[in-house]
Amino acid sequence: MYIQPDTIHWDEERYRGDAYAAFAFACVVVDVDVDIDTGEVRVTDLVAALDPGKAIHPVMVEGQLEGGVLQGVGYATIEEMKTEDGRFVNDRLATYIIPTSLDAPQIKTVLVENPYSGGPSGAKGIGEIPMDCPAPAIIAAIHDATGVWLDELPATPERLLAALSS
Amino acid sequence: MISFTVNGKHVSVDAPGARRLLDVLREDLGMTGTKEGCGEGECGACSVLIDGEVVNSCLVAAGQVGGCEVSTVEGLERNSELAPLQRAFIEFGAAQCGICTPGMLMAAQTLLQRNPDPSLEDVRTAIGGNLCRCTGYTKIIEAILACRTQSS
Description:
The structure holds two protein chains of two kinds. Chain A is an alpha+beta fold.
């Protein structure tokens, strides 16, 4: 049975209170190379800082962060779930392309520990947050490099060339 | 009967020639160290060595390995001791969900045998056919680079 810690206050009837008890914080900075002839975007370096509360197992926290940000890089640059008549068109690894070791940027992680009293041993959840930052960072970096804002993901060569020529 | 060696041991299996080597290893021989990822040659999780070459065992028919030397992840340890590369994977946190790990180890071990002092780019290229969704490759690459002088 779930027992709410004393430090969290949530009113189930009125839906008021601490809906998200432990806000995690993260920040990502990227370097991108943009080929303005082909429209190819390559993320070369990525630095990710994360507040995991207390890092119970620092190596695994770093690993979660590194893996999550690379999924975010894929989401921003190459990964796209295409559907047709309600079915996935690219439903396999031959057609749904994810980053390989040759596509992955150099990833550096920084853990900024800020133990949270309501979490186990001071920890916060870190499953989701690594994926949130790379796409906005990459789109901003592409803007920095080219002057165009892309408003659709992923930043494929086709989309970038179209934006550059308009 | 198809006869070949697995990690130095002679084996004979009564399997149809078109049966996938992956299934022969996992189901007929009970060696479940080799994993199935995509089953279509894209992800590299099922990587094994045939006569020293890294191959996707999901794409190899059993009939093709007659007389060959097959090496799997089970063959990396020596006298019940993990190989340096396996210890490095543990130490650096290079395995998360673990499905890519056996294939990564086979690809990395082959690289280190051929080139004991590979560059970062050599390592990235050597595991370029092995997809990992958990680690961002960072700790896998660190673990392989840490074994540069330990391997011969």
